[in-house]
Amino acid sequence: MKERKEIERLIRKLLIDMGEDPQRVGLRETPQRYAEMIAQLTAGYRQDPKELLKDAIFPVRYDQMIVVKDILFHSLCEHHIIPFFGKAHVGYIPNGKVIGMSKIPQIVEHFSRKLQLQERMSEEIADFLMKTLKPKGVGVVLQGFHLCMAMRDLQKDAELITSAVKGLFRSDPRTRAEFLQLIGRS
């Protein structure tokens, strides 16, 4: 991030405004650490997701469902800039080409690395795979735990489940049911 020094300055001011001393031993490096961390957690703004797939799309004669499940993700709620995290499950039916299996978790990570809404993140992952691979269908289910609900005055522990289904996953109930069964959500 090009404004790291400005972020450090703002965090020092925030510490002072909270009643802290940014020069005390435990806090001296906090502004720099925060600036580095926020750059990592928002890397999705500065990456082209298509770059993740270069040299990883392969022609194939396979037309059955491919599912990668239990992909851990971490993101930041755009309303409070507090983390939410959980598991992503992604499936697709190839239409002449597949991507390397490790690319699906990288795609999930890419879209999680910006201020997000879980609902939008589900759609962005599915839309990206549909546009890039042109499969017969895509299904994405995200299960998220939002610290903005758990830590604030609401103090509610609840899981948010969102989905995005495209192509056959949307039009064929049997395809959707197979996907949900494979990820353990019938």
What's the layout of helices and strands?
Elements: H1 4-17, H2 30-41, H3 49-53, E1 57-59, E2 66-77, E3 83-93, E4 97-99, H4 103-112, E5 115-116, H5 118-133, E6 137-146, H6 147-150, E7 159-167, H7 168-171, H8 173-182
Parallel strand pairs: 2-5
Antiparallel strand pairs: 1-4, 2-3, 3-6, 6-7
Structure overview:
The protein has helices spanning 4-17, 30-41, 49-53, 103-112, 118-133, 147-150, 168-171, 173-182, and strands spanning 57-59, 66-77, 83-93, 97-99, 115-116, 137-146, 159-167. The strands form 2 sheets. It has a 5-stranded mixed sheet with strand order 5-2-3-6-7. Strands 1-4 form a two-stranded antiparallel ribbon. The chain is α+β, with helices and mostly antiparallel strands and 186 residues long. It has 2 domains: 4-41, no CATH class; 52-182, GTP Cyclohydrolase I, domain 2.
Task: List the main descriptive attributes of the protein structure presented here.
186 residues, alpha+beta, GTP Cyclohydrolase I, domain 2, 2 domains, five-stranded mixed β-sheet, two-stranded antiparallel sheet, 8 helices, 40% helix, 27% strand
Give the helix proportion (percent range). Answer: 40-55%
Rounded to the nearest angstrom, the radius of gyration is 20 Å
Query: What is the distance, rounded to the nearest whole angstrom, between the alpha carbons of the first and last residues?
Result: 43 Å
CATH class of the largest domain, anyone?
Alpha Beta
Named at the architecture level, the CATH assignment of the largest domain is 2-Layer Sandwich
Strand-residue fraction? 25-35%
Helix-strand category: alpha+beta
Largest sheet: 5 strands, mixed
Looking at this structure, what is the CATH superfamily of the largest domain? GTP cyclohydrolase I, C-terminal domain/NADPH-dependent 7-cyano-7-deazaguanine reductase, N-terminal domain
Number of domains: 2
